[in-house]
Amino acid sequence: MKQIVVAITGASGSIYGLRLVEELLKSQCRVALLLTRSGLEVLRYETGLEWEGSTSARKQLMRDYFGGSHRLDHYDADDLFAPVASGSSAPDAMVVVPCSMGTAGRIAAGIGSNLVERAADVALKERRELILVPRESPFNPIHLENLLKLSRAGAHILPAMPGFYHRPKTIDDLVDFVVGKILDSLQIKHSLFQRWGEG
After folding, report:
1. Alpha-carbon distance 103 to 113, whole Å?
2. Binding site annotation covers 165?
3. Cross-referenced SUPFAM superfamilies, in alphabetical order (predicted)?
4. In the chain, where the domains are located
5. Mean pLDDT of the chain
6. 112 is in an annotated binding site
7. For residue 41, which phi and psi values (nearest 5 degrees)?
8. What does the alpha-carbon distance between residue 88 and residue 169 come to, in Å, rounded to a whole number?
9. Is 123 labelled a binding residue?
10. 135 among the known binding-site residues?
């Protein structure tokens, strides 16, 4: 069973993270869902989800949202004693979706001031798959330099840029395209979009 960390930061596009967790659980993966403080605020603003309270209360709210799955774990953003903060129990992969430019910059600088940044650092040092899904436009030169630095360090940069050759009809179709690209990078089978040349 693959163990995947999914982190939602304060960039717009928290729906991508939610949809990814849904698909990972459907694929029988074990998922640790992390949210930065600003990630929680943007999630509330964009989706109306109120995941407040203690860490255990938030974990229960998340499990309820995802159908009660006990393969879903949650750790507080400041919990540097969480298993995913250590290379000795590094997950198979980590996806930061959406990834704010602040988070990308701190990961690029080797700063691990919260659990998201530390877990990403662990993924890089242990040579595990680290996928960053920036949702920013336009990029300034600092953003681009940080993303290039992260790519050279082994991270997979997968911007939230949906294609249109599958003729999307809804916002869900656009979200599914990006999530499908993430699943492709994780080598997890899916049928979220029609591939080029199919049909």
Report:
1. 10
2. yes
3. Homo-oligomeric flavin-containing Cys decarboxylases, HFCD
4. 3-185
5. 95
6. no
7. -65, -45
8. 44
9. no
10. yes
Task: Give me the CATH topology for the region 3-185.
Answer: Rossmann fold (3.40.50)
Instruction: Tell me the pTM.
Output: 0.96
Find, among 7, 47, 27, 31, the residue nearest to 131 by Cα.
7
Amino acid at 28: Q
Instruction: Confirm whether residue 65 is marked as ligand binding.
Output: no
> Using CA atoms, how far apart are residues 154 and 196, in angstroms rounded to an integer?
27
Q: Is 38 annotated as a binding residue?
A: no
* Residue of 119, 58, 57 lying closest to 83 (CA atoms): 119
Q: How many CA atoms lie within 13 A of 69 on its CB side?
A: 21
Q: What is the pLDDT of residues 119-134, one digit of tens each?
A: 999 999 999 999 999 9
Rounded to whole angstroms, how far apart are CA atoms 179 and 18? 10
pLDDT of residue 48: 97
Residue 102 in marked binding region: yes
Residue 75 marked ligand-binding: no
Tokens of 20: 């990814």
Q: Is 10 marked as a binding-site residue?
A: yes
Over residues 93-100, the mean pLDDT reads 98
- Gap between the Cα atoms of 102 and 170, Å rounded: 30
Cα separation of 75 and 109, whole Å? 23
Which amino acid belongs to residue 18?
Answer: L
Q: Per mean pLDDT, which range of 24-33, 95-104, 154-163, 188-197 is the poorest?
A: 188-197
12 is in an annotated binding site: yes
Are 66 and 35 in contact by the 8 Å Cβ rule? The answer is no
**170 labelled binding-site residue:** no
